[in-house]
Amino acid sequence: MIQQQKREIIIPSQLLGEVKLKKAGRGTFIENGKIYAEILGILDEKSDYINVIPIKGRYDPVENDFVIGIVEEAMASNWLVDINAAYPALLHVNETPWDIEFGETEKYLNYGDSIMAKVLQVDREKKIQITLKDYNLYKIKGGHIIEVEPSKVPRIIGKKGSMISLLKKYTKCRIFVGQNGRIWIDGNDDDIKKVVETIKMIENESLSFGLTNKIEELLKKDAKDVR
Amino acid sequence: MKTDIKLIVDGKRLDGRRPDELRKIKIEAGVLHRAEGSCYLEWGGNKIIAAIYGPREAVPRHIQNPLRAIVNARYNMAAFSVDDRKRPGPDRRSTEISKVISEALEHVILLEKFPRATIDVNIEILDAEAGTRCAGLTAAAVALVDAGIPMRDIPVACASGKINNQIVLDLGKDEDNFGSADMPLAISPRTGEILLLQMDGHLTEEEFDEAFNLALKGCHIVSELQKKAILEKYKPILEVE
Questions:
Q1: Can you tell me the ipTM of this complex?
Q2: Which of A38, A40, A55 sits opposite B110 (nearest CB)?
Q3: Domain at B194, CATH number
Q4: Which one of A22, A116, B175, B230 is most buried, by most CB atoms within 10 A?
Protein backbone atom coordinates (compact mmCIF):
# COMPACT_ATOMS: atom_id res chain seq x y z
CA MET A 1 0.00 0.00 0.00
CA ILE A 2 1.18 3.48 -0.80
CA GLN A 3 2.25 5.62 2.11
CA GLN A 4 -0.56 8.10 2.70
CA GLN A 5 0.67 11.64 2.80
CA LYS A 6 0.23 13.72 5.91
CA ARG A 7 -2.50 16.30 5.60
CA GLU A 8 -1.74 19.92 6.26
CA ILE A 9 -3.81 23.07 6.53
CA ILE A 10 -2.70 25.82 4.20
CA ILE A 11 -3.48 29.49 4.70
CA PRO A 12 -3.36 32.11 1.92
CA SER A 13 0.07 33.55 1.04
CA GLN A 14 1.85 30.44 2.31
CA LEU A 15 4.88 29.48 0.22
CA LEU A 16 4.34 26.06 -1.39
CA GLY A 17 7.22 25.59 -3.80
CA GLU A 18 9.11 26.85 -6.81
CA VAL A 19 7.96 26.88 -10.41
CA LYS A 20 11.14 25.09 -11.51
CA LEU A 21 10.35 22.05 -9.39
CA LYS A 22 6.56 21.86 -9.32
CA LYS A 23 3.50 22.96 -11.28
CA ALA A 24 0.96 25.33 -9.79
CA GLY A 25 -2.46 23.71 -9.64
CA ARG A 26 -5.82 24.82 -8.28
CA GLY A 27 -5.96 27.27 -5.40
CA THR A 28 -2.47 28.62 -6.01
CA PHE A 29 -0.82 31.55 -7.77
CA ILE A 30 2.66 32.30 -9.03
CA GLU A 31 4.72 35.34 -8.17
CA ASN A 32 8.42 35.79 -9.01
CA GLY A 33 8.83 32.13 -9.84
CA LYS A 34 7.41 30.95 -6.53
CA ILE A 35 4.11 29.20 -5.87
CA TYR A 36 1.87 30.53 -3.12
CA ALA A 37 -1.53 29.44 -1.80
CA GLU A 38 -4.45 31.75 -2.48
CA ILE A 39 -7.13 30.15 -0.33
CA LEU A 40 -7.62 28.45 3.00
CA GLY A 41 -7.48 24.73 2.33
CA ILE A 42 -5.79 21.36 2.52
CA LEU A 43 -2.52 20.65 0.70
CA ASP A 44 -2.81 18.11 -2.09
CA GLU A 45 0.25 17.13 -4.12
CA LYS A 46 -0.49 14.98 -7.14
CA SER A 47 2.39 14.03 -9.45
CA ASP A 48 3.89 17.39 -10.41
CA TYR A 49 1.02 19.56 -9.33
CA ILE A 50 0.51 21.41 -6.08
CA ASN A 51 -3.18 21.94 -5.35
CA VAL A 52 -4.96 23.52 -2.43
CA ILE A 53 -8.41 22.01 -1.84
CA PRO A 54 -10.69 24.63 -0.30
CA ILE A 55 -12.26 24.05 3.12
CA LYS A 56 -14.90 26.74 2.73
CA GLY A 57 -16.25 28.97 0.03
CA ARG A 58 -18.96 29.34 -2.56
CA TYR A 59 -19.72 26.84 -5.29
CA ASP A 60 -17.79 27.66 -8.44
CA PRO A 61 -20.00 26.54 -11.34
CA VAL A 62 -18.45 24.31 -14.00
CA GLU A 63 -20.17 23.33 -17.25
CA ASN A 64 -22.03 19.99 -17.18
CA ASP A 65 -22.20 19.88 -13.39
CA PHE A 66 -25.47 18.63 -11.95
CA VAL A 67 -26.87 21.01 -9.36
CA ILE A 68 -29.96 21.59 -7.24
CA GLY A 69 -31.42 25.05 -7.66
CA ILE A 70 -34.15 27.05 -5.94
CA VAL A 71 -36.18 29.41 -8.12
CA GLU A 72 -35.77 33.03 -7.04
CA GLU A 73 -37.79 34.83 -9.66
CA ALA A 74 -40.02 33.99 -12.62
CA MET A 75 -39.76 36.42 -15.54
CA ALA A 76 -41.61 36.48 -18.87
CA SER A 77 -39.40 33.96 -20.66
CA ASN A 78 -36.93 32.78 -18.06
CA TRP A 79 -36.31 32.14 -14.40
CA LEU A 80 -33.56 33.21 -12.03
CA VAL A 81 -32.38 30.26 -9.99
CA ASP A 82 -30.20 30.25 -6.88
CA ILE A 83 -27.61 27.49 -7.24
CA ASN A 84 -25.48 28.52 -4.24
CA ALA A 85 -22.93 30.23 -6.51
CA ALA A 86 -21.91 33.88 -6.26
CA TYR A 87 -24.46 34.72 -8.96
CA PRO A 88 -28.01 33.57 -9.75
CA ALA A 89 -28.33 31.26 -12.75
CA LEU A 90 -30.60 31.83 -15.74
CA LEU A 91 -33.01 29.12 -16.90
CA HIS A 92 -34.65 29.91 -20.24
CA VAL A 93 -38.02 28.44 -21.27
CA ASN A 94 -36.36 26.80 -24.28
CA GLU A 95 -34.20 24.83 -21.87
CA THR A 96 -37.19 23.15 -20.23
CA PRO A 97 -39.06 20.06 -21.44
CA TRP A 98 -42.37 21.96 -21.38
CA ASP A 99 -44.10 24.00 -24.09
CA ILE A 100 -44.62 27.34 -22.38
CA GLU A 101 -46.56 30.36 -23.68
CA PHE A 102 -44.81 33.72 -23.31
CA GLY A 103 -45.50 35.12 -19.84
CA GLU A 104 -46.81 31.89 -18.39
CA THR A 105 -43.61 30.78 -16.72
CA GLU A 106 -45.18 30.98 -13.26
CA LYS A 107 -47.54 28.13 -14.09
CA TYR A 108 -44.60 25.76 -14.34
CA LEU A 109 -42.00 26.99 -11.88
CA ASN A 110 -42.55 29.61 -9.25
CA TYR A 111 -40.67 31.28 -6.44
CA GLY A 112 -39.43 28.70 -3.93
CA ASP A 113 -39.67 25.66 -6.22
CA SER A 114 -36.64 23.40 -6.36
CA ILE A 115 -35.20 21.84 -9.49
CA MET A 116 -32.48 19.44 -10.44
CA ALA A 117 -30.59 21.05 -13.27
CA LYS A 118 -27.43 20.90 -15.32
CA VAL A 119 -25.05 23.81 -15.80
CA LEU A 120 -25.24 24.58 -19.52
CA GLN A 121 -22.79 27.41 -19.85
CA VAL A 122 -20.60 29.70 -17.77
CA ASP A 123 -19.11 32.64 -19.67
CA ARG A 124 -16.18 34.87 -18.88
CA GLU A 125 -18.36 37.33 -17.03
CA LYS A 126 -19.57 34.40 -14.93
CA LYS A 127 -23.07 34.56 -16.36
CA ILE A 128 -24.50 31.14 -15.64
CA GLN A 129 -27.07 29.30 -17.75
CA ILE A 130 -28.67 26.07 -16.62
CA THR A 131 -30.89 23.55 -18.37
CA LEU A 132 -33.54 20.98 -17.51
CA LYS A 133 -33.06 19.15 -20.83
CA ASP A 134 -31.14 16.09 -19.82
CA TYR A 135 -31.78 12.61 -18.57
CA ASN A 136 -33.12 12.58 -15.01
CA LEU A 137 -33.67 16.31 -14.50
CA TYR A 138 -36.96 17.30 -12.91
CA LYS A 139 -38.80 19.77 -10.78
CA ILE A 140 -38.48 18.41 -7.25
CA LYS A 141 -41.71 17.27 -5.60
CA GLY A 142 -41.41 16.09 -2.01
CA GLY A 143 -38.37 14.81 -0.12
CA HIS A 144 -35.75 16.76 1.77
CA ILE A 145 -32.95 19.05 0.68
CA ILE A 146 -29.90 19.46 2.91
CA GLU A 147 -26.86 21.64 2.36
CA VAL A 148 -23.19 20.74 2.81
CA GLU A 149 -19.96 22.53 1.94
CA PRO A 150 -19.51 22.28 -1.85
CA SER A 151 -15.90 21.18 -1.31
CA LYS A 152 -17.13 18.07 0.55
CA VAL A 153 -19.32 16.82 -2.32
CA PRO A 154 -16.62 14.58 -3.90
CA ARG A 155 -16.25 12.82 -0.55
CA ILE A 156 -19.99 12.23 -0.22
CA ILE A 157 -20.13 10.74 -3.71
CA GLY A 158 -16.97 8.70 -3.14
CA LYS A 159 -14.65 7.11 -5.67
CA LYS A 160 -16.78 6.20 -8.69
CA GLY A 161 -19.88 6.75 -6.56
CA SER A 162 -18.91 4.18 -3.94
CA MET A 163 -20.11 6.18 -0.94
CA ILE A 164 -23.41 7.27 -2.40
CA SER A 165 -24.25 3.77 -3.66
CA LEU A 166 -23.62 2.50 -0.12
CA LEU A 167 -26.16 4.97 1.23
CA LYS A 168 -28.70 3.97 -1.41
CA LYS A 169 -28.13 0.26 -0.80
CA TYR A 170 -28.64 0.33 2.95
CA THR A 171 -31.43 2.89 3.28
CA LYS A 172 -33.71 2.49 0.24
CA CYS A 173 -33.69 6.26 -0.17
CA ARG A 174 -33.60 8.09 -3.46
CA ILE A 175 -30.67 10.50 -3.31
CA PHE A 176 -29.46 13.16 -5.73
CA VAL A 177 -26.22 14.98 -4.92
CA GLY A 178 -25.79 18.36 -6.57
CA GLN A 179 -22.23 19.54 -7.16
CA ASN A 180 -23.23 22.81 -5.50
CA GLY A 181 -23.52 21.16 -2.09
CA ARG A 182 -27.29 20.61 -2.04
CA ILE A 183 -28.48 17.05 -1.56
CA TRP A 184 -32.01 15.83 -2.20
CA ILE A 185 -33.22 12.79 -0.28
CA ASP A 186 -36.56 11.02 -0.60
CA GLY A 187 -37.80 7.93 1.23
CA ASN A 188 -39.52 7.11 4.49
CA ASP A 189 -38.84 9.36 7.49
CA ASP A 190 -36.51 7.01 9.42
CA ASP A 191 -34.37 6.38 6.37
CA ILE A 192 -34.11 10.09 5.58
CA LYS A 193 -33.00 10.73 9.14
CA LYS A 194 -30.34 8.07 8.87
CA VAL A 195 -29.04 9.40 5.55
CA VAL A 196 -28.88 12.96 6.92
CA GLU A 197 -26.96 11.77 9.98
CA THR A 198 -24.56 9.74 7.87
CA ILE A 199 -23.93 12.62 5.47
CA LYS A 200 -23.22 14.97 8.37
CA MET A 201 -20.75 12.41 9.67
CA ILE A 202 -19.05 12.11 6.28
CA GLU A 203 -18.82 15.90 6.13
CA ASN A 204 -17.24 16.15 9.58
CA GLU A 205 -14.78 13.32 9.04
CA SER A 206 -14.15 13.94 5.37
CA LEU A 207 -10.40 14.00 5.91
CA SER A 208 -10.00 10.62 7.60
CA PHE A 209 -8.69 7.63 5.67
CA GLY A 210 -10.77 4.54 4.91
CA LEU A 211 -14.01 6.39 5.52
CA THR A 212 -16.04 4.34 3.03
CA ASN A 213 -15.36 1.09 4.92
CA LYS A 214 -16.17 2.73 8.22
CA ILE A 215 -19.49 4.05 6.94
CA GLU A 216 -20.36 0.67 5.45
CA GLU A 217 -19.81 -1.08 8.79
CA LEU A 218 -21.93 1.52 10.53
CA LEU A 219 -24.79 1.21 8.07
CA LYS A 220 -24.62 -2.60 8.23
CA LYS A 221 -24.90 -2.53 12.01
CA ASP A 222 -27.85 -0.15 11.93
CA ALA A 223 -29.60 -2.24 9.30
CA LYS A 224 -29.36 -5.28 11.59
CA ASP A 225 -30.74 -3.33 14.53
CA VAL A 226 -33.86 -2.49 12.61
CA ARG A 227 -34.63 -6.09 11.73
CA MET B 1 -2.30 69.36 22.10
CA LYS B 2 -0.06 70.92 24.74
CA THR B 3 -0.21 69.11 28.02
CA ASP B 4 2.01 68.45 30.97
CA ILE B 5 0.71 64.95 31.49
CA LYS B 6 3.52 62.46 31.99
CA LEU B 7 2.80 59.55 29.69
CA ILE B 8 6.10 57.78 30.25
CA VAL B 9 7.55 57.29 33.73
CA ASP B 10 10.87 55.46 34.20
CA GLY B 11 10.68 54.01 30.69
CA LYS B 12 7.26 52.50 31.41
CA ARG B 13 4.01 53.72 29.88
CA LEU B 14 0.72 54.38 31.70
CA ASP B 15 -0.44 50.79 31.37
CA GLY B 16 2.98 49.41 32.29
CA ARG B 17 4.12 48.60 28.75
CA ARG B 18 7.60 49.18 27.36
CA PRO B 19 7.72 51.69 24.46
CA ASP B 20 7.98 48.90 21.86
CA GLU B 21 5.38 46.62 23.35
CA LEU B 22 1.94 45.82 21.93
CA ARG B 23 -1.27 45.61 23.89
CA LYS B 24 -2.74 42.17 24.53
CA ILE B 25 -4.31 40.70 21.39
CA LYS B 26 -6.80 37.86 21.16
CA ILE B 27 -8.09 36.67 17.77
CA GLU B 28 -10.81 34.10 17.15
CA ALA B 29 -11.89 33.07 13.65
CA GLY B 30 -15.31 31.82 12.55
CA VAL B 31 -17.58 33.06 15.33
CA LEU B 32 -20.76 33.83 13.37
CA HIS B 33 -22.96 31.15 11.79
CA ARG B 34 -24.81 33.07 9.12
CA ALA B 35 -21.83 34.98 7.73
CA GLU B 36 -19.55 33.40 5.13
CA GLY B 37 -16.58 34.27 7.30
CA SER B 38 -16.12 36.08 10.58
CA CYS B 39 -13.64 37.05 13.25
CA TYR B 40 -13.76 38.32 16.82
CA LEU B 41 -10.79 40.35 17.93
CA GLU B 42 -9.74 41.90 21.21
CA TRP B 43 -6.85 44.33 21.05
CA GLY B 44 -6.28 45.89 24.46
CA GLY B 45 -9.63 47.51 25.23
CA ASN B 46 -10.87 47.24 21.64
CA LYS B 47 -13.53 44.61 20.97
CA ILE B 48 -14.39 44.07 17.32
CA ILE B 49 -16.47 41.67 15.23
CA ALA B 50 -15.84 41.45 11.50
CA ALA B 51 -18.20 39.57 9.16
CA ILE B 52 -17.91 38.77 5.46
CA TYR B 53 -20.90 38.35 3.16
CA GLY B 54 -20.41 37.35 -0.44
CA PRO B 55 -19.01 37.25 -3.06
CA ARG B 56 -22.49 37.89 -4.41
CA GLU B 57 -23.95 39.77 -7.31
CA ALA B 58 -23.61 43.54 -6.79
CA VAL B 59 -26.85 45.54 -6.73
CA PRO B 60 -27.86 48.03 -8.08
CA ARG B 61 -26.43 46.91 -11.38
CA HIS B 62 -24.70 50.18 -12.25
CA ILE B 63 -22.16 49.66 -9.47
CA GLN B 64 -21.06 46.33 -10.97
CA ASN B 65 -17.67 46.08 -12.59
CA PRO B 66 -17.76 43.56 -15.47
CA LEU B 67 -14.11 42.66 -14.96
CA ARG B 68 -13.69 42.37 -11.22
CA ALA B 69 -15.41 42.35 -7.85
CA ILE B 70 -15.84 45.39 -5.64
CA VAL B 71 -15.01 45.40 -1.95
CA ASN B 72 -17.51 47.15 0.23
CA ALA B 73 -16.18 47.57 3.76
CA ARG B 74 -18.42 49.15 6.36
CA TYR B 75 -16.83 50.36 9.59
CA ASN B 76 -19.40 51.05 12.26
CA MET B 77 -19.00 52.08 15.88
CA ALA B 78 -21.67 50.89 18.27
CA ALA B 79 -23.37 53.65 20.28
CA PHE B 80 -22.03 52.10 23.49
CA SER B 81 -18.46 51.64 22.25
CA VAL B 82 -17.14 54.91 23.72
CA ASP B 83 -17.50 56.67 27.07
CA ASP B 84 -19.95 59.29 25.83
CA ARG B 85 -22.72 57.77 23.77
CA LYS B 86 -21.85 57.94 20.08
CA ARG B 87 -24.68 59.09 17.86
CA PRO B 88 -25.45 56.01 15.75
CA GLY B 89 -25.06 55.94 12.01
CA PRO B 90 -22.32 56.80 9.55
CA ASP B 91 -20.40 60.04 10.06
CA ARG B 92 -17.37 61.65 8.43
CA ARG B 93 -14.91 59.61 10.43
CA SER B 94 -16.46 56.19 9.83
CA THR B 95 -17.03 56.95 6.14
CA GLU B 96 -13.34 57.71 5.78
CA ILE B 97 -12.25 54.60 7.64
CA SER B 98 -14.62 52.44 5.57
CA LYS B 99 -13.04 53.84 2.43
CA VAL B 100 -9.41 53.34 3.42
CA ILE B 101 -10.10 49.80 4.67
CA SER B 102 -11.95 48.93 1.42
CA GLU B 103 -9.00 50.14 -0.60
CA ALA B 104 -6.47 48.29 1.53
CA LEU B 105 -8.40 45.04 1.13
CA GLU B 106 -8.87 45.53 -2.63
CA HIS B 107 -5.12 45.19 -3.07
CA VAL B 108 -4.90 41.71 -1.56
CA ILE B 109 -8.12 40.01 -2.72
CA LEU B 110 -8.01 38.29 -6.13
CA LEU B 111 -10.91 40.35 -7.46
CA GLU B 112 -10.68 39.12 -11.07
CA LYS B 113 -12.13 35.79 -9.93
CA PHE B 114 -15.52 37.32 -9.22
CA PRO B 115 -16.59 39.69 -12.00
CA ARG B 116 -19.78 41.70 -11.32
CA ALA B 117 -19.75 40.67 -7.65
CA THR B 118 -19.42 42.47 -4.36
CA ILE B 119 -17.69 41.32 -1.20
CA ASP B 120 -19.25 42.95 1.84
CA VAL B 121 -17.04 43.41 4.87
CA ASN B 122 -18.83 44.53 8.01
CA ILE B 123 -16.65 45.74 10.85
CA GLU B 124 -18.51 46.39 14.06
CA ILE B 125 -16.69 48.17 16.89
CA LEU B 126 -18.24 46.97 20.14
CA ASP B 127 -15.71 48.60 22.42
CA ALA B 128 -13.21 51.28 21.43
CA GLU B 129 -9.88 52.20 22.98
CA ALA B 130 -7.68 53.83 20.30
CA GLY B 131 -6.42 52.08 17.18
CA THR B 132 -9.76 50.74 16.01
CA ARG B 133 -8.98 51.16 12.33
CA CYS B 134 -5.90 48.95 12.65
CA ALA B 135 -7.78 46.41 14.74
CA GLY B 136 -10.74 46.54 12.34
CA LEU B 137 -8.56 45.86 9.30
CA THR B 138 -6.74 43.05 11.10
CA ALA B 139 -10.05 41.43 12.05
CA ALA B 140 -11.45 41.87 8.52
CA ALA B 141 -8.40 40.10 7.07
CA VAL B 142 -8.89 37.05 9.29
CA ALA B 143 -12.61 36.99 8.46
CA LEU B 144 -11.79 37.06 4.71
CA VAL B 145 -9.52 34.04 5.05
CA ASP B 146 -12.23 32.30 7.10
CA ALA B 147 -14.71 32.99 4.28
CA GLY B 148 -12.49 31.10 1.83
CA ILE B 149 -11.95 34.10 -0.39
CA PRO B 150 -8.85 33.88 -2.61
CA MET B 151 -6.20 36.35 -1.49
CA ARG B 152 -2.63 37.22 -2.37
CA ASP B 153 -1.78 37.92 1.24
CA ILE B 154 -3.30 38.39 4.68
CA PRO B 155 -3.13 42.13 5.37
CA VAL B 156 -2.27 43.34 8.84
CA ALA B 157 -2.23 46.73 10.54
CA CYS B 158 -0.59 48.31 13.55
CA ALA B 159 -0.05 51.87 14.73
CA SER B 160 2.89 53.73 16.21
CA GLY B 161 3.14 57.29 17.49
CA LYS B 162 4.94 59.83 19.58
CA ILE B 163 4.32 60.61 23.23
CA ASN B 164 6.48 62.80 25.48
CA ASN B 165 9.02 63.10 22.65
CA GLN B 166 9.45 59.39 22.39
CA ILE B 167 8.37 57.03 19.60
CA VAL B 168 6.17 54.24 20.90
CA LEU B 169 4.27 51.29 19.44
CA ASP B 170 0.49 50.83 19.51
CA LEU B 171 -0.92 53.88 21.31
CA GLY B 172 -3.46 53.42 24.09
CA LYS B 173 -6.43 55.70 24.70
CA ASP B 174 -4.73 58.40 26.80
CA GLU B 175 -1.58 58.24 24.70
CA ASP B 176 -3.68 58.84 21.61
CA ASN B 177 -5.56 61.75 23.20
CA PHE B 178 -2.59 63.49 24.81
CA GLY B 179 0.32 62.34 22.63
CA SER B 180 1.74 64.38 19.78
CA ALA B 181 1.45 61.97 16.84
CA ASP B 182 -0.37 58.80 15.79
CA MET B 183 0.48 56.81 12.68
CA PRO B 184 -1.56 53.77 11.60
CA LEU B 185 0.13 51.49 9.08
CA ALA B 186 -1.23 48.50 7.16
CA ILE B 187 1.00 46.20 5.15
CA SER B 188 0.96 43.06 3.11
CA PRO B 189 3.44 41.07 5.24
CA ARG B 190 4.65 38.67 2.51
CA THR B 191 5.70 41.38 0.08
CA GLY B 192 6.09 44.31 2.46
CA GLU B 193 3.80 46.50 0.37
CA ILE B 194 2.09 49.37 2.17
CA LEU B 195 -1.71 49.21 2.04
CA LEU B 196 -2.56 52.08 4.36
CA LEU B 197 -0.50 54.84 5.91
CA GLN B 198 -2.03 57.78 7.70
CA MET B 199 -0.65 60.25 10.18
CA ASP B 200 -2.16 62.58 12.70
CA GLY B 201 0.18 65.09 14.39
CA HIS B 202 3.75 66.11 13.71
CA LEU B 203 6.93 64.06 13.28
CA THR B 204 10.34 65.01 11.97
CA GLU B 205 11.82 62.98 9.16
CA GLU B 206 13.98 60.91 11.52
CA GLU B 207 11.09 60.38 13.89
CA PHE B 208 8.91 59.28 10.98
CA ASP B 209 11.44 56.65 9.92
CA GLU B 210 11.72 55.39 13.47
CA ALA B 211 7.94 55.27 13.92
CA PHE B 212 7.52 53.55 10.55
CA ASN B 213 10.02 50.80 11.36
CA LEU B 214 8.46 50.29 14.77
CA ALA B 215 4.97 49.96 13.28
CA LEU B 216 6.36 47.54 10.68
CA LYS B 217 7.76 45.39 13.48
CA GLY B 218 4.38 45.47 15.22
CA CYS B 219 2.60 44.42 12.01
CA HIS B 220 4.74 41.29 11.69
CA ILE B 221 4.02 40.29 15.28
CA VAL B 222 0.26 40.70 14.75
CA SER B 223 0.50 38.81 11.45
CA GLU B 224 1.77 35.72 13.27
CA LEU B 225 -1.16 35.96 15.69
CA GLN B 226 -3.60 36.11 12.75
CA LYS B 227 -2.14 32.97 11.19
CA LYS B 228 -2.19 31.18 14.53
CA ALA B 229 -5.87 32.05 15.02
CA ILE B 230 -6.83 30.60 11.63
CA LEU B 231 -4.84 27.41 12.16
CA GLU B 232 -6.35 26.99 15.62
CA LYS B 233 -9.86 27.17 14.20
CA TYR B 234 -9.23 24.65 11.43
CA LYS B 235 -6.79 22.21 13.01
CA PRO B 236 -9.53 20.09 14.65
CA ILE B 237 -10.78 18.90 11.25
CA LEU B 238 -7.48 17.06 10.78
CA GLU B 239 -7.70 15.32 14.11
CA VAL B 240 -10.51 12.90 13.30
CA GLU B 241 -8.40 9.71 13.23
A1: 0.90
A2: A38
A3: 3.30.230.70
A4: B175
